[in-house]
User: Which sequence fits this backbone?
């Protein structure tokens, strides 16, 4: 009797040990994944469109600098699985192993913040109001409520500050029509559906002027 319970107890110890051990291994694995260095030739895959520093000079290509790594990795996974549609990006990720996503994400997250733009001065007051107050009449919530006051975002809500207005407008329209539907619980679709194109344009013109002051 005593012996059996001893055996069970030591069995439990072993199980606990295994659990602790595999948790530790998992952590080590994750730490290792973050340490994977990108060979310079891998960055060449992105450079022509996003710049090696993620400060894309082309309006239709999003600036990637300082994007949250968790958001970045999920977008790459979504392109790979076809959950986010883009002929260009789906073609690119097809040739990249998922294990490399984190390394790309870390690289772009470590770059300087994207250079802000001037924005259309006529639209800035309206855009600023939408960003911080939302649109009361049509129940549009303030963007700052999720993407933070300075637009730098959090682990749950991606950075917007300094992003190209053309890219922002396109994504908002994609959310509005449902062409982009990989947002968790449809949060962004609900926001975009309540906005008209003029309002979307205005807020995008304001966002590009944001420097990300809290960084
Ligand atoms: C030929 C141009 C091109 C190349 C090369 C390219 N991209 Fe893109 N990338 C785009 C476009 C266009 C989009 C916007 C897709 C959309 O319409 O949703 C995009 C979007 C992204 C996004 C989503 C950004 C966001 O804010 O949601 C990530 C992440 C990304 N690219 C990473 C990469 C990485 C990493 C590489 C290199 C391995 C790369 N891209 C190479 C054109 C390119
Ligand atoms: C309730 C929270 C919430 C509010 C309010 C909100 N957003 Fe978002 N937004 C999100 C989430 C979550 C995502 C990421 C979706 C995903 O994971 O694919 C996102 C993503 C985005 C993207 C895509 C970014 C990229 O790099 O592709 C844009 C653009 C955007 N939001 C603009 C806005 C604007 C403009 C407003 C205000 C009118 C706003 N958001 C208000 C939660 C919010």
Assistant:
């Amino acid at each position: 009797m005593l012996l059996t319970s001893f055996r069970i107890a030591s069995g439990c110890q072993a199980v606990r040990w295994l659990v602790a051990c595999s948790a530790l291994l998992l952590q080590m694995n994750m730490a290792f994944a973050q340490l994977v260095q990108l060979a310079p030739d891998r960055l060449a895959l992105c450079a022509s469109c996003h710049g090696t520093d993620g400060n894309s000079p082309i309006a239709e290509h999003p600036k990637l600098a300082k994007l949250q790594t968790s958001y970045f990795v999920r977008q790459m996974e979504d392109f790979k699985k076809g959950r986010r549609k883009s002929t260009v990006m789906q073609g690119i990720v097809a040739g990249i192993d998922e294990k490399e996503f984190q390394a790309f994400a870390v690289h772009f997250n470590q770059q300087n913040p994207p250079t802000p733009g001037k924005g259309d001065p006529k639209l800035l007051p309206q855009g600023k109001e939408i960003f911080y107050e939302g649109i009361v009449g049509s129940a549009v919530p303030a963007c700052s409520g999720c993407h933070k006051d300075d637009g730098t975002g959090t682990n749950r809500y991606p950075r917007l500050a300094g992003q190209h207005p053309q890219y922002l407008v396109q994504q908002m329209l994609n959310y509005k029509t449902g062409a982009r539907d990989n947002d968790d619980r449809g949060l962004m679709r609900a926001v975009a559906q309540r906005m008209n194109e003029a309002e979307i344009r205005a807020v995008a013109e304001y966002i590009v002027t944001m420097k990300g002051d809290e960084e």
